[in-house]
Amino acid sequence: MAPPTPKLVIPIDLKKKPWEQKLPLHNRWHPEIPPVTEIKTGEMFRIEMVDWTAGAIQDNNSAIDVKTIDLSTVHYLSGPIRVVDTDGNPAEPGDLLAVELCNLGPLPGDEWGFTAIFDRENGGGFLTDHFPRATKAIWYFEGIYAHSPHIPGVRFPGLVHPGIIGTAPSKELLNIWNERERKLEETGHQSLKLCEVLHTRPLANLPSTKGCILGKIQDGTPEWKRIANEAARTIPGRENGGNCDIKNLSRGSKIYLPVFVEGANFSTGDMHFSQGDGEVSFCGAIEMSGFLELKCEIIRNGMKEYLTPTGPTPLHVNPIFEIGPMEPRFSEWLVFEGISVDESGQQHYLDASVAYKRAVLNAIDYLSKFGYTKEQVYILLSCCPCEGRISGIVDAPNAVATLAIPTAIFDQDIRPKVNKVPLGPRLVRNPGIPQCTYDGSLPITKNPLLH
């Protein structure tokens, strides 16, 4: 007997706003955001999701939507979902929620996505001091493959995955998040030397009522105002999972999420067709609307049995991820190395972030020799199936990071050659990409040998 069709528990109408959906979406983490539906362990169910901006970025040749986007509203998540066992008993704090991803993909009829670089004054990204201008590339899907008219000469298979998947925090855990992130935002600029090298601001996105969507909780009520002032933004990954952006969490993967509130209050969103390790441009995957078919199990007392706290409380734990068997297969890679020496030549001590920045910059400079603009390469490295690694973290003073790029995604040979570097035939005809001007006054980091 064939298994039943997965039950659609959260439908999406792309013509409606997030708060107009049949089951309203939310864009914050808080234990008091009520669940919109309930599922039982073992049953297959289907969730539909808007893209992380809920349609704010359009399929066109202008990047003005990227430049002016209101980032207080992201990410829009489907959920929360209350999880109970077959006897109707809910998941309890201290349990593990095992979530198996059975199937996923773009929403039918909406088979396109986007990758972008935010303006430095509005979001920025890993290399925002080098690339401060809002820039956008549109991608179209042909089965498992993606291609872009804005980065011609490239085609690659996607590895579809949700960027965000997590459970609701308890009030105690929420307070821990808010306290440590507020301290970082208030003192980090003066105390952290890394702020001189990595320029994404703010250092932490603190709770804010602006743009806040709390699902079933009515906007403007005293309850909404109180929760909105406490609720955590969805930007970083945390102990509950959240925005981990792990590109290999595709079909067949399992996520073991800590449970902090009764019912787990599971949410997901931020669907990606493809992403490179690090998602370096910030809006850096191929962002899309999508669906997820999954099932859950409850491992009673699983947090104590399987997770070891690394911090001052039992809440300082992290999820476990089991990668599925489905991924693109490549046999040849070009690998770029970076060390923990910044663009000014300053030595840093075993700093993997500085090393990875150098690896990405080295790859961008190299690939721009083959007919691409550097912005095209930056976007490409953020969303194509490239592999980032910390290759060395013990040999003081240099951490070593590498970025491996599959050569098969290009329509030309990008390896170093004895002969002059040839240009790809399609790249000559269309080297442009939608961009806006940068109107801010912050300095742009440049290679002193090239200027």
UniProtKB/TrEMBL annotation:
Checking NCBIfam families in the record gives: FormamaseFmdA
The protein's organism comes out as: Anisodus tanguticus
Q: Name one GO molecular function term.
A: hydrolase activity, acting on carbon-nitrogen (but not peptide) bonds, in linear amides
* PANTHER family for this protein: FORMAMIDASE C869.04-RELATED
Which InterPro entries does this entry report, sorted A to Z?
A: FmdA_AmdA (IPR004304), FormamaseFmdA (IPR054833)
Q: What is this protein called?
A: Formamidase
